[in-house]
Specification:
mainly beta, three-stranded antiparallel beta sheet, 9 strands
Length: about 120
């Protein structure tokens, strides 16, 4: 799989948000809900989408990431980055068991994150 990042306008917060693209498809489209949006720059960690448990991958559609975020566990080995266990910790821990894992080439993944700035 290939990771990309798109900057898209958000209707509620009136600024651009970042949406991960997986093989060119916005991650928001994977869930068939209008409850998710991209992540505002101010909600991105200093090093977003890096390995760790419960890493923010999408924000709530209201524009406040902490309201109803989508998180995933991100792991890494020498050549790959893997996203697994997509879930909503603030919605009774709802887990999307039919989504993932997403396995990315590590070099391509890191290049995409560098373009985020």
């Amino acid at each position: 799989m290939e990771l990309g990042l798109a900057s898209v306008p958000h209707d509620v917060v009136h600024e651009d948000v970042f949406v991960p693209l997986v093989d060119g498809v916005p991650l928001t489209d994977w869930f068939g809900e209008d409850e998710f949006s991209g992540v505002r720059r101010e909600d991105l960690e200093p090093r977003p989408f890096q390995p760790g448990k419960a890493r923010l991958v999408l924000g709530c559609s209201c524009g406040i990431a902490a309201c109803g975020p989508l998180v995933a566990d991100i792991t890494a080995d020498r050549g790959t980055i893997i996203w697994t266990r997509f879930r909503r910790p603030h919605r009774n821990g709802h887990e999307y068991v039919d989504i993932g894992p997403c396995v990315f080439d590590r070099a391509q993944y890191e290049k995409a994150l560098l373009e985020l700035g």
